[in-house]
Sequence to fold (252 residues):
Amino acid sequence: MNRSRLTLAALLFLAAGPINAARAQTTIDGDWEVTIQAQQGNSTVLVTFKQDGSKVSGIFKSPLGEMPFQDGTLSGSDLKFTFSIPIQGQALDVTMTGKVEAASITGKAQFGGFGEGDWTAKRVDSAAAAAAARPAPAAAPAAAGAGSTASATGLSGKWDVTLKTQMGDLPVSAELAESAGKVTGSLVGPMGPVDVTGTFEGNAIKLDFTAKTPQGDIPISMSGELNGDAIVNGKAEVGGMGQAEWTAKRKQ
Fold:
């Protein structure tokens, strides 16, 4: 599998929303906000560390679910832990090393020899971690005749996009505007927003954008069909390296 795709998939997996709290502690037991810094932007994940002497284990918590890891070590202030992410039948080994200083950590993340990035971490309190883990409350249904987008027509509007991968479903938000068959807008995923252009003819949709990875830019072309408030039969061509499926639903 192309190295750029493996690294991008790993970064997408290690992506989650930010948490805004920290406190000082003398061990790494507990919840930490870990931020990976890469060429295409920062990605953040909540990690719960468990320390037993010099042994360290933990759990990554991301939009794709929870992933435990073991066999980490903490020697003095030097932290090291590894884990593997299965991607389309292959395992991408990620090694993270860092220096612990009270309630912060700084270090390097190595993506199986395919690239590296800096990372930092700060401790978060249990209340902030619990709030981050809770799902957002469901929005109240819009009143009839109040301009709900559920009955909207055309492609313009906000969409919840799901890219289906071997790792699971990757959620992405999209905001699109269509005029005279031309489409502009943005996709917002774990690594931040990217600009999108495309076409809309009949019910056929085509969207193009470029994903930036540590190994270079990857052009991605997405096609699909508008069916009311859904996009179906979605295919994504990833820089000539393969194809994935995707769907979308208009935000209510």
Summary: The longest helix spans residues 3-13.
